[in-house]
Task: inverse folding
């Protein structure tokens, strides 16, 4: 079976968050899964944004195709019953274990600012048309090769237009939609739907104000998954479903969770060049050097054996930075020190900034994204904080476990799936899980952590060792689960036409 990914991000080519990491890591892991019925390499289609740089020697081919021009709006060649077209190049690049296929259309993707908006952070008004063109180009390139895919694996709303462009019925490709972030729907107002083409305008109800692209893809895909079983259950509720819980519930067992994995070659304290010293589960002696190195770099006393907590993340209310700020005064009174790295709106960490200025020996605030510093934090702190209000999966807790740093997490989504609470399961836990998502709840879990950390001895070392022993490798469970999902999607598609759903959200 031939599988093609359609995604708006892919590490290391284009990244704003976890979507990019998953697309890259899963495509590579699929290339290493021993299964005879999977055609390799996997194709990964990605827009060629201005910032995507490709060494010429890695380009393996390219082709030009004609696709409907989203800028032409409604039918322009009415007599012929078709729209004006535009030329798109598809550039093939040898990536690490898969074939990257860049959709090169400068008018759509060679823009200043971010992938989805301008330098001021405002969404590009033609996003639906841009990503509609991306989907058309990917499907056109596949069709022109005479070897259509058996499965279209589409990721988030950016690839959702493909559900109406791909051939329908048993002869068309099976479609698996992976929802990484339910908060972004690709809402397209009525005035911009024409940019998606007649496939979409023809199903727009007369009184509809627009189209929810993610909602439409949920209803039309053969299978839908999100990135952890825990979040799949939460997404069925109004609290976490972001308005799409009715659509998700309607899919029954065709909606499920597959836990994200971790690239265990990329994240390995035994080979991590950013660390002051290597270490492993079998020999953790190097972790003390990593702790001393981190604290020295931050101007903190490495001889102080009080617990050091770290946090890394996007500055967003979802991530719970405000909970850390709320608990910080009591944590400092208890002898904790804090190391926080985050990028985003600065006002979310104003309280921590005040503490970092007043007590530089106890609080370090790094307001930027720094890859090497992030690795030093994972290795150098004693406990890792992830107090997210909701978290579809998360990788920080997986990395911290692998780096011998027990996580302290809120009981939600993938965090609950990946961290076993030592309080509820003494002698069998891997970290500390708290509820509800309040500063007091976080403080209680941190104090539970500190009690065991300060006791030390065999109990503490066993906790750390259990965490480092957990296997989150993509190749072990996650990638094989996706292969099974592909087989199931193909079976469903071949058995009957994909179910049809309402196109418009009113």
Result:
């Amino acid at each position: 079976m031939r599988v093609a990914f359609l995604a708006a991000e892919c590490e290391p080519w284009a990244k704003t968050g976890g979507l990019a990491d998953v697309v890259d890591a899963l495509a590579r892991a699929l290339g290493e899964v021993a299964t005879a019925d999977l055609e390799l390499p996997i194709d990964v289609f990605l827009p060629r944004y201005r910032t995507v740089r490709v060494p010429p020697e890695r380009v393996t081919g390219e082709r030009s195709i004609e696709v409907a021009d989203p800028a032409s709006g409604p039918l322009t060649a009415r007599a012929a019953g078709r729209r004006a077209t535009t030329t798109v190049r598809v550039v093939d690049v040898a990536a690490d274990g898969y074939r990257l296929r860049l959709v090169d259309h400068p008018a759509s993707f060679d823009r200043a600012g971010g992938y989805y908006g301008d330098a001021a952070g405002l969404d590009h008004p033609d996003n639906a048309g841009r990503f509609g063109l991306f989907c058309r180009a990917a499907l056109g390139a596949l069709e022109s090769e005479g070897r259509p895919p058996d499965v279209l694996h589409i990721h988030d709303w950016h690839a959702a237009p493909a559900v109406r462009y791909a051939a329908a019925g048993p002869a068309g490709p099976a479609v698996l939609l992976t929802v990484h972030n339910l908060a972004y729907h690709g809402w397209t107002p009525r005035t911009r739907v024409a940019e998606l083409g007649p496939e979409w305008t023809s199903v727009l109800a007369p009184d509809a104000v627009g189209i929810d692209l993610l909602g439409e893809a949920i209803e039309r895909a053969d299978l839908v998954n999100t990135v952890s079983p825990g979040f799949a259950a939460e997404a069925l509720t109004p609290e976490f479903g972001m308005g799409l819980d009715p659509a998700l519930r309607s899919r029954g067992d065709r909606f499920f969770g597959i836990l994200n994995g971790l690239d265990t070659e990329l994240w390995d304290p035994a080979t991590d060049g950013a660390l002051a010293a290597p270490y492993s589960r079998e020999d953790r002696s190097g972790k003390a050097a990593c702790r001393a190195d981190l604290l020295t770099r931050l101007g903190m006393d490495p001889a102080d054996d009080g617990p050091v907590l770290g946090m890394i993340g996007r500055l967003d209310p979802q991530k719970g930075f405000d909970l850390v700020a709320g608990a910080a005064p009591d944590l400092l009174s208890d002898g904790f020190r804090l190391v926080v790295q985050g990028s985003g709106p600065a006002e979310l960490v104003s309280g921590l900034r005040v503490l970092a200025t007043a007590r530089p020996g106890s609080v370090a605030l790094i307001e930027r994204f720094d890859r090497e510093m992030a690795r030093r934090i994972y290795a150098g702190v004693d406990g890792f904080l992830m107090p997210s209000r909701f978290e579809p999966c998360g990788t920080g807790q997986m990395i911290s476990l692998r780096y011998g740093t027990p996580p302290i997490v809120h009981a939600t989504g993938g965090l609950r799936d990946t961290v076993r609470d030592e309080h509820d399961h003494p002698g069998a836990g891997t970290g500390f899980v708290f509820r509800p998502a309040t500063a007091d709840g976080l403080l209680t879990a941190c104090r539970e952590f500190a009690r065991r950390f300060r006791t030390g001895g065999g109990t503490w070392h066993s906790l750390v060792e259990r965490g480092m022993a957990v296997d989150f490798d993509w190749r072990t469970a996650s990638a094989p689960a996706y292969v099974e999902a592909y087989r199931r999607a193909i079976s469903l598609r071949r058995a009957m036409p994909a179910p049809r759903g309402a196109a418009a959200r009113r």
Remarks:
- The chain is about 35% helix and 15% strand.
- The chain has two domains: 3-261+476-495, 286-469.
